[in-house]
Amino acid sequence: MILENIAQNRFKLMMRLWICMLFCTLAIGCGPREAPPPARRMYSQVLRQVARSMESEGTYVQVIFRTTAFEIARLYAEAEKKGWDEGQIRGKLRYLVLVFVDSPYPPGDRGLLSFYQIYKALDPSFDPGNPLQRAQYEVFRSKYVDKVVDAFLNPALPGLRERYLEEWGYDLYGRLVFSFYLENRGGKILPVKDIGRHIFLEDDKGNKYGPMGLAGPYPYDYDVPPESLETTARFRLFFVNRRSDGRPPIVGKDTKHLKLVIEDWGGKPRWEFVWDLPFRYPEWPGRKGKAIRF
Hints:
alpha+beta; four-stranded antiparallel β-sheet; 10 strands; 36% helix; 21% strand; globular
């Protein structure tokens, strides 16, 4: 009898300990979660503004309007995660500018003036095969890139803003850049390789604009999506904002909204993704007259 009482008491004690441990675990798990670091929180807020998504009959489509502010917020979030110093951040910003300044683009009066074409127009005698003239061009280009990066990092201005220079705001050196993510959630396999030919931009005046690139509507060959959407697909499209023929830009200072449309694809006559402009970007965390510091 005594042994039986001892066993019962031990069992009750173990149960109490187990319940206490369970409540402690639940309390820890249900407690307030640690807030993400400032740069990653800023990036998430920007992403919510520039990303649009829609799902229809098991096909999910996400479109990101990759403005300059989005690219900067994404870069700072990565810098925070990897512990980059200010020199590394500046180097990454220079690379971002150089990618769009130097990238080739279809020529012609409907195309975008490249940085090389602009320099050639300023100096018609420029011969890239001449080592001295080529070196002068490199210096000119490097000074321009530094000017753009200085505008990004100017501590007297907000960290994220609608315009940095005339050619750096919504567009990346004259290009409106959009990233697409497609996911098959319903099992129905759709043709996707030519989806770029079904996509156009529409401004708030009803004008329509098609994408341009070196691989048909796609910027480059590696942007061309697969033949069919079996699982997921990613690609980009570029739209010329500042044109070489002097026509007004697609997105200007007075543009109220921008619409991206996919027509007659995925069993749906029209997909519409709309951005109200201008974007109201979040305040740069910790920026009180100086750049972010980690």
